[in-house]
Amino acid sequence: MTILCVIFMKGNCATEEDIWEVLNVMGVYAERKHLIYGDPKKLVTQDLVQERYLQYRQVANSDPPRYEFLWGPRAHAETSKMKVLEFLAKIHDTVPSAFPSWYEEALQDEEERTRARFAALLRTGALADVRPRVNFGSFFHL
Questions:
Q1: Which DSSP helix (H) or strand (E) runs through 58?
Q2: Are residues 8 and 73 in the same domain?
Q3: Which of 28, 69, 72, 130 measures 20 to 30 Å from 124, CA to CA?
């Protein structure tokens, strides 16, 4: 979740340096084995990428090569910007709206996700059976 926070806070794309700067503060270093995470560099740049939580790509025209991270499709499917912002707010003992620009972006993301789910329901016809089930005959007995 921390990596997703960094990516979100950096404008939905964070450099590898941005990620390691935050992880280093947490005592997680690319070049050192970690008791819980094992090989952190492999976890972040390979395992989480292979699991599709992160996208890891070379920055265009970078020489020497530099890399950046984005949310992967699985991260988009399993969490949201609002959930990540709520996590960040909890760490800072505040509320998501305390971060106005990120909060606005998270609200827009929630709205887009809701529209996409609704459109998917319409396409599948799942909403065709959703209609009021009122027995109007019962009103005539009043």
A1: strand 54-58
A2: yes
A3: 72
Question: Token digits for 52?
Answer: 């599709």
Query: Quick one: 111 and 123 in the same domain?
Result: yes
Query: Is 139 part of any domain?
Result: no
Taking the model in full, what pTM does it have? 0.80
- Element at 5 (helix H, strand E): helix 2-9
What does the alpha-carbon distance between residue 71 and residue 89 come to, in Å, rounded to a whole number?
A: 19
- Cis peptide, bond prior to residue 64, ω within 30 of zero: yes
Distance separating alpha carbons of residues 40 and 127, to the nearest angstrom: 45
Would you write out the chain's pLDDT as a tens digit for each of its 142 residues?
A: 899 999 999 999 999 999 999 999 999 999 999 888 889 999 999 999 999 999 999 999 999 999 999 999 999 999 999 999 999 999 999 999 999 999 999 999 999 999 988 888 888 776 665 555 555 554 444 4
Domain that holds residue 54: 1-77
Question: Coil, strand, or helix at residue 4?
Answer: helix
Nearest C-alpha neighbor of 55 from the set 31, 32, 73:
73
Q: Are 7 and 13 in contact (CB under 8 A)?
A: yes
